[in-house]
UniProtKB/TrEMBL annotation:
<dbReference type="InterPro" id="IPR002504">
    <property type="entry name" value="NADK"/>
</dbReference>
<dbReference type="InterPro" id="IPR016064">
    <property type="entry name" value="NAD/diacylglycerol_kinase_sf"/>
</dbReference>
<keyword id="KW-0418">Kinase</keyword>
<dbReference type="InterPro" id="IPR039065">
    <property type="entry name" value="AcoX-like"/>
</dbReference>
<keyword id="KW-0808">Transferase</keyword>
<dbReference type="InterPro" id="IPR011386">
    <property type="entry name" value="Put_ATP-NAD_kin"/>
</dbReference>
<dbReference type="Pfam" id="PF01513">
    <property type="entry name" value="NAD_kinase"/>
</dbReference>
<dbReference type="Pfam" id="PF20143">
    <property type="entry name" value="NAD_kinase_C"/>
</dbReference>
<protein>
    <submittedName>
        <fullName>ATP-NAD kinase family protein</fullName>
    </submittedName>
</protein>
<dbReference type="GO" id="GO:0016301">
    <property type="term" value="F:kinase activity"/>
</dbReference>
<dbReference type="InterPro" id="IPR017438">
    <property type="entry name" value="ATP-NAD_kinase_N"/>
</dbReference>
Amino acid sequence: MHVGIAVNPVAGMGGRVGLKGTDGKVAEAVERGAEPRAPDRARRMLDRLAAVAPDTAVSVVADPMGESTVRDAGFNPVRVVDPFGGETPHSTATTAAHTAAAVRAFAGLNDDGAGDGDETGPTDSVDLVLFVGGDGTAADVATALEGTEVPMLGVPAGVKVYSSVFAVSPEDAAEVAASFSRTERREVMDIDEDAYREGEVHPELCGVAHVPVADDLQSSKQTASGTVESLAEGVAADVRERDGEGVTFVLGPGSTVGAIKDELDFEPSPIGVDIWRDGGLVVRDATEAEILDALGEENVIVVSPIGGQGFVFGRGNPQLSPAVIRRCDLRIVASRAKLDDVRALRVDTDDPDLDAELAGWVRVRVGKFETRMMKIV
């Protein structure tokens, strides 16, 4: 098997600092103290790939888009393109054109489109393009592969991850890459991040790509149907019962938890994390650092899984980092209709040990009083 690996080094950087994405916001993310996420996700995938398919031939693009990370994982890759003209820019200087140049080189298309890139290796097409990034990166990869039958597979590292071209986790991406035998065409979706930051979600179809067929691929995000009014009323009543006890409630993003925020009678951030304590809003649209600062001795996260995918953590809520999760009790809420749409719940926290700790059967609140048992896998 021959794979081409491209890492978008800025993917997901805007998440924990409250930017809801990184498109056009890299400088602001860095100013807020954001740390790169994608290289660690890439290394997790590579470590598993080295374990399950150590003889994999790997093509890479010059740093900071993955070459050193691949070598550090024990592979001896061939650099097929240097879209930076022999210079190594700071990771925040990479662009969609650099991704396109890398992917087209992987596919044996040597008109790299970057204008100043150097082709430095063989030009035979790879069997699979493995990219590390989010929906924006997926759209760039799909566009570069348009007109070819080269399949693509995403290692999720972005904030939103709406497309159905991603593996569930970095390790799953390696397993799929090592074992797939056929592909199918899947949709690549992206959203306008500026509208998303204002609470409006409008996914748009950016392309259709060949993707390996496997169980460990996520579905596209779906909008939950059915009413959540009674659920929100019940949870809000429970929250208010704790007023005056100093309990900090970390209320996650999304429409289901948004209904709870409405019941608590404050103006929520519909796609952000809000913090409530003792009858009042403490922080609206909190970053990871603001959440950690606000936590007390007793803390509760209230979060709803993503419809169609079942992710409790790791898609759309990176502010709820491992450091936050470890200091909180977990309360999962969802409409019955949303749970009917998923086989199991999932987590992808960037901390494999925490993912393992969270795995197992959990109680999910589905009504004013009713609950349902679901398994986190």
